[in-house]
Protein backbone atom coordinates (compact mmCIF):
# COMPACT_ATOMS: atom_id res chain seq x y z
CA UNK A 1 0.00 0.00 0.00
CA UNK A 2 1.34 3.41 -0.99
CA UNK A 3 1.68 5.85 1.91
CA UNK A 4 0.89 9.43 0.95
CA UNK A 5 0.92 12.83 2.64
CA UNK A 6 -0.84 15.84 1.09
CA UNK A 7 0.54 19.31 1.68
CA UNK A 8 -2.12 21.96 1.08
CA UNK A 9 -5.85 22.59 1.39
CA UNK A 10 -6.91 24.27 -1.86
CA UNK A 11 -9.24 22.88 -4.51
CA UNK A 12 -6.82 20.27 -5.87
CA UNK A 13 -5.78 19.17 -2.38
CA UNK A 14 -9.42 18.96 -1.28
CA UNK A 15 -10.47 16.68 -4.14
CA UNK A 16 -7.30 14.57 -4.00
CA UNK A 17 -7.74 14.12 -0.25
CA UNK A 18 -11.37 13.06 -0.74
CA UNK A 19 -10.34 10.51 -3.36
CA UNK A 20 -7.40 9.04 -1.45
CA UNK A 21 -9.42 8.59 1.73
CA UNK A 22 -11.58 6.12 -0.22
CA UNK A 23 -8.70 4.54 -2.17
CA UNK A 24 -8.06 0.93 -1.08
CA UNK A 25 -4.57 0.93 -2.63
CA UNK A 26 -3.41 4.06 -0.83
CA UNK A 27 -3.00 5.03 2.80
CA UNK A 28 -3.45 8.77 3.31
CA UNK A 29 -1.24 9.13 6.36
CA UNK A 30 -1.56 12.85 6.92
CA UNK A 31 -2.67 16.23 5.57
CA UNK A 32 -0.66 19.38 6.27
CA UNK A 33 -1.80 22.98 6.00
CA UNK A 34 -0.35 26.10 7.59
CA UNK A 35 -3.88 27.07 8.67
CA UNK A 36 -5.03 24.07 10.69
CA UNK A 37 -8.62 25.33 10.76
CA UNK A 38 -9.03 24.63 7.05
CA UNK A 39 -8.38 20.91 7.57
CA UNK A 40 -10.13 20.38 10.90
CA UNK A 41 -12.90 18.54 9.05
CA UNK A 42 -10.38 15.72 8.43
CA UNK A 43 -9.33 15.14 12.04
CA UNK A 44 -11.50 12.03 12.42
CA UNK A 45 -10.39 10.58 9.09
CA UNK A 46 -6.62 11.03 9.05
CA UNK A 47 -3.79 12.79 10.86
CA UNK A 48 -3.61 16.56 10.38
CA UNK A 49 -0.89 19.06 11.21
CA UNK A 50 0.24 22.64 10.68
CA UNK A 51 3.89 21.89 11.48
CA UNK A 52 6.36 20.64 8.87
CA UNK A 53 8.46 19.14 11.67
CA UNK A 54 5.58 16.76 12.46
CA UNK A 55 5.34 15.20 8.98
CA UNK A 56 5.13 11.43 9.10
CA UNK A 57 7.21 8.91 7.15
CA UNK A 58 5.52 8.40 3.76
CA UNK A 59 6.33 7.11 0.27
CA UNK A 60 5.07 10.22 -1.55
CA UNK A 61 4.61 13.81 -0.38
CA UNK A 62 2.24 15.73 -2.66
CA UNK A 63 2.51 19.53 -2.67
CA UNK A 64 -0.85 20.95 -3.77
CA UNK A 65 -0.52 24.69 -3.27
CA UNK A 66 -0.44 27.79 -5.52
CA UNK A 67 2.22 27.74 -8.24
CA UNK A 68 4.13 30.78 -7.04
CA UNK A 69 4.58 29.29 -3.56
CA UNK A 70 5.96 25.89 -4.60
CA UNK A 71 9.64 26.79 -4.81
CA UNK A 72 9.84 28.57 -1.45
CA UNK A 73 7.63 26.07 0.35
CA UNK A 74 9.53 23.04 -0.95
CA UNK A 75 12.84 24.53 0.24
CA UNK A 76 11.55 24.20 3.81
CA UNK A 77 11.03 20.45 3.55
CA UNK A 78 13.67 18.19 5.07
CA UNK A 79 12.82 14.93 3.37
CA UNK A 80 16.06 13.48 2.03
CA UNK A 81 15.61 10.30 -0.04
CA UNK A 82 11.84 10.78 -0.07
CA UNK A 83 9.72 11.48 -3.16
CA UNK A 84 8.27 14.99 -3.19
CA UNK A 85 5.99 15.99 -6.08
CA UNK A 86 3.89 18.99 -6.99
CA UNK A 87 0.56 19.13 -8.84
CA UNK A 88 1.18 22.21 -10.96
CA UNK A 89 0.79 22.28 -14.72
CA UNK A 90 2.84 25.42 -15.22
CA UNK A 91 5.75 24.68 -12.85
CA UNK A 92 8.85 22.73 -13.90
CA UNK A 93 9.92 19.75 -11.83
CA UNK A 94 13.29 21.35 -11.05
CA UNK A 95 11.56 24.26 -9.32
CA UNK A 96 11.13 21.94 -6.35
CA UNK A 97 13.85 23.09 -3.96
CA UNK A 98 13.73 20.30 -1.38
CA UNK A 99 16.69 17.97 -0.83
CA UNK A 100 14.47 15.06 -1.86
CA UNK A 101 13.72 13.04 -4.96
CA UNK A 102 11.51 15.11 -7.26
CA UNK A 103 8.47 14.50 -9.42
CA UNK A 104 5.22 15.90 -10.77
CA UNK A 105 1.67 14.61 -10.39
CA UNK A 106 -0.46 16.89 -12.59
CA UNK A 107 -4.21 16.31 -12.74
CA UNK A 108 -5.55 17.89 -15.93
CA UNK A 109 -8.89 19.12 -14.68
CA UNK A 110 -10.59 22.23 -13.34
CA UNK A 111 -11.47 21.78 -9.67
CA UNK A 112 -14.06 23.56 -7.55
CA UNK A 113 -14.86 22.36 -4.05
CA UNK A 114 -18.60 22.59 -4.73
CA UNK A 115 -18.51 20.19 -7.69
CA UNK A 116 -17.71 16.48 -7.62
CA UNK A 117 -15.50 15.04 -10.35
CA UNK A 118 -15.03 11.53 -11.71
CA UNK A 119 -11.36 10.86 -11.01
CA UNK A 120 -11.32 7.74 -13.17
CA UNK A 121 -11.62 9.96 -16.27
CA UNK A 122 -9.12 12.65 -15.27
CA UNK A 123 -5.85 12.56 -17.23
CA UNK A 124 -2.88 12.42 -14.86
CA UNK A 125 0.50 13.55 -16.21
CA UNK A 126 3.51 12.24 -14.32
CA UNK A 127 7.23 12.97 -14.31
CA UNK A 128 10.06 11.83 -12.05
CA UNK A 129 13.85 11.95 -11.87
CA UNK A 130 14.33 8.19 -11.62
CA UNK A 131 12.67 5.11 -13.11
CA UNK A 132 11.89 3.81 -9.62
CA UNK A 133 10.06 7.00 -8.65
CA UNK A 134 8.27 7.10 -12.01
CA UNK A 135 6.96 3.57 -11.45
CA UNK A 136 5.76 4.53 -7.97
CA UNK A 137 3.94 7.61 -9.31
CA UNK A 138 2.44 5.52 -12.10
CA UNK A 139 1.16 3.00 -9.55
CA UNK A 140 -0.44 5.81 -7.54
CA UNK A 141 -1.93 7.37 -10.67
CA UNK A 142 -3.40 4.04 -11.82
CA UNK A 143 -5.13 3.64 -8.47
CA UNK A 144 -6.94 6.91 -9.19
CA UNK A 145 -7.46 7.21 -12.95
CA UNK A 146 -7.57 5.19 -16.17
CA UNK A 147 -5.74 7.91 -18.11
CA UNK A 148 -2.02 8.16 -17.33
CA UNK A 149 0.50 10.07 -19.45
CA UNK A 150 4.27 10.49 -19.11
CA UNK A 151 4.83 14.21 -19.72
CA UNK A 152 8.08 16.12 -19.18
CA UNK A 153 8.29 19.69 -17.84
CA UNK A 154 8.52 21.32 -21.28
CA UNK A 155 5.56 19.35 -22.62
CA UNK A 156 3.54 20.07 -19.48
CA UNK A 157 4.15 23.81 -19.88
CA UNK A 158 2.62 23.64 -23.37
CA UNK A 159 -0.22 21.48 -22.11
CA UNK A 160 -0.97 23.97 -19.36
CA UNK A 161 -1.07 26.85 -21.86
CA UNK A 162 -3.45 24.82 -24.04
CA UNK A 163 -5.59 24.13 -20.97
CA UNK A 164 -5.85 27.87 -20.27
CA UNK A 165 -7.18 28.40 -23.81
CA UNK A 166 -9.73 25.57 -23.77
CA UNK A 167 -10.86 26.05 -20.17
CA UNK A 168 -10.16 29.43 -18.55
CA UNK A 169 -10.55 31.56 -21.67
CA UNK A 170 -13.61 29.64 -22.84
CA UNK A 171 -15.26 30.06 -19.45
CA UNK A 172 -14.61 33.81 -19.63
CA UNK A 173 -16.39 33.82 -22.98
CA UNK A 174 -19.32 32.07 -21.29
CA UNK A 175 -19.31 34.92 -18.77
CA UNK A 176 -19.44 37.52 -21.56
CA UNK A 177 -22.25 35.60 -23.29
CA UNK A 178 -24.12 35.52 -19.99
CA UNK A 179 -23.68 39.29 -19.63
CA UNK A 180 -25.03 39.92 -23.15
CA UNK A 181 -28.08 37.77 -22.43
CA UNK A 182 -28.78 39.50 -19.12
CA UNK A 183 -28.68 42.94 -20.74
CA UNK A 184 -31.72 42.06 -22.85
CA UNK A 185 -33.33 39.80 -20.22
CA UNK A 186 -32.72 36.59 -22.19
CA UNK A 187 -32.35 33.29 -20.35
CA UNK A 188 -28.78 31.93 -20.61
CA UNK A 189 -30.38 28.45 -20.45
CA UNK A 190 -31.19 28.81 -24.15
CA UNK A 191 -27.47 28.62 -24.98
CA UNK A 192 -26.61 25.56 -22.88
CA UNK A 193 -27.55 22.91 -25.50
CA UNK A 194 -25.35 24.80 -27.98
CA UNK A 195 -22.48 24.88 -25.49
CA UNK A 196 -22.78 21.13 -24.89
CA UNK A 197 -22.97 20.33 -28.60
CA UNK A 198 -19.88 22.43 -29.31
CA UNK A 199 -17.94 20.58 -26.60
CA UNK A 200 -19.22 17.15 -27.66
CA UNK A 201 -18.47 17.79 -31.33
CA UNK A 202 -14.70 17.83 -30.80
CA UNK A 203 -14.82 14.31 -29.36
CA UNK A 204 -15.16 13.08 -32.95
CA UNK A 205 -14.01 16.06 -35.04
CA UNK A 206 -10.78 18.05 -34.98
CA UNK A 207 -11.50 21.61 -33.79
CA UNK A 208 -10.46 23.01 -37.16
CA UNK A 209 -13.19 20.93 -38.81
CA UNK A 210 -15.84 21.87 -36.25
CA UNK A 211 -15.71 25.65 -36.69
CA UNK A 212 -18.88 27.45 -37.78
CA UNK A 213 -20.16 31.04 -37.60
CA UNK A 214 -19.87 34.42 -39.35
CA UNK A 215 -16.09 34.77 -38.92
CA UNK A 216 -15.43 31.48 -40.69
CA UNK A 217 -17.80 32.52 -43.50
CA UNK A 218 -16.25 36.01 -43.57
CA UNK A 219 -19.76 37.39 -43.18
CA UNK A 220 -18.81 41.03 -42.64
CA UNK A 221 -22.39 42.29 -42.61
CA UNK A 222 -23.28 40.13 -39.61
CA UNK A 223 -19.96 40.84 -37.89
CA UNK A 224 -20.48 44.61 -38.06
CA UNK A 225 -24.06 44.28 -36.77
CA UNK A 226 -22.78 42.29 -33.81
CA UNK A 227 -20.20 44.93 -32.93
CA UNK A 228 -22.83 47.65 -32.60
CA UNK A 229 -24.40 45.72 -29.71
CA UNK A 230 -21.16 45.28 -27.76
CA UNK A 231 -19.31 47.30 -25.13
CA UNK A 232 -15.81 48.50 -26.04
CA UNK A 233 -14.19 45.64 -24.11
CA UNK A 234 -16.49 43.07 -25.72
CA UNK A 235 -15.79 44.58 -29.15
CA UNK A 236 -12.06 44.23 -28.59
CA UNK A 237 -12.36 40.55 -27.74
CA UNK A 238 -14.86 39.91 -30.55
CA UNK A 239 -12.59 41.57 -33.12
CA UNK A 240 -9.47 39.73 -31.96
CA UNK A 241 -11.16 36.33 -32.11
CA UNK A 242 -12.80 37.13 -35.44
CA UNK A 243 -9.42 38.05 -36.96
CA UNK A 244 -7.88 34.83 -35.65
CA UNK A 245 -10.69 32.70 -37.14
CA UNK A 246 -10.69 34.43 -40.53
CA UNK A 247 -6.89 34.13 -40.71
CA UNK A 248 -7.08 30.44 -39.83
CA UNK A 249 -9.52 29.80 -42.68
CA UNK A 250 -7.63 31.82 -45.27
CA UNK A 251 -9.63 35.04 -45.32
CA UNK A 252 -8.76 38.61 -44.34
CA UNK A 253 -10.95 41.23 -42.68
From TrEMBL:
Domain DUF2520: 122-245
Domain Pyrroline-5-carboxylate reductase catalytic N-terminal: 3-87
Database matches in InterPro entries: 6-PGluconate_DH-like_C_sf, DUF2520, NAD(P)-bd_dom_sf, P5C_Rdtase_cat_N, TM1727-like_C_sf
Domain of life the protein comes from: Bacteria
UniProt cross-references to Pfam families, sorted A to Z: DUF2520 (PF10728), F420_oxidored (PF03807)
PANTHER family: CONSERVED HYPOTHETICAL ALANINE AND LEUCINE RICH PROTEIN
Name of the molecule in the record: DUF2520 domain-containing protein
Organism: Lutibacter profundi
Amino acid sequence: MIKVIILGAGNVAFHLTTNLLKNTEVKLLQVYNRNIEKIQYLKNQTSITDKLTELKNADIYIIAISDDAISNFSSKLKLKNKLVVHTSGGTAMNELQSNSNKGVFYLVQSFSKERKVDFSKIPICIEAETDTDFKLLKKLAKSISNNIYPVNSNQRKSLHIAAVFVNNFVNHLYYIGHQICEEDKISFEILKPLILETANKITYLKPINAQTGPAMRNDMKTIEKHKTKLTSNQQEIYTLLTKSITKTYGEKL
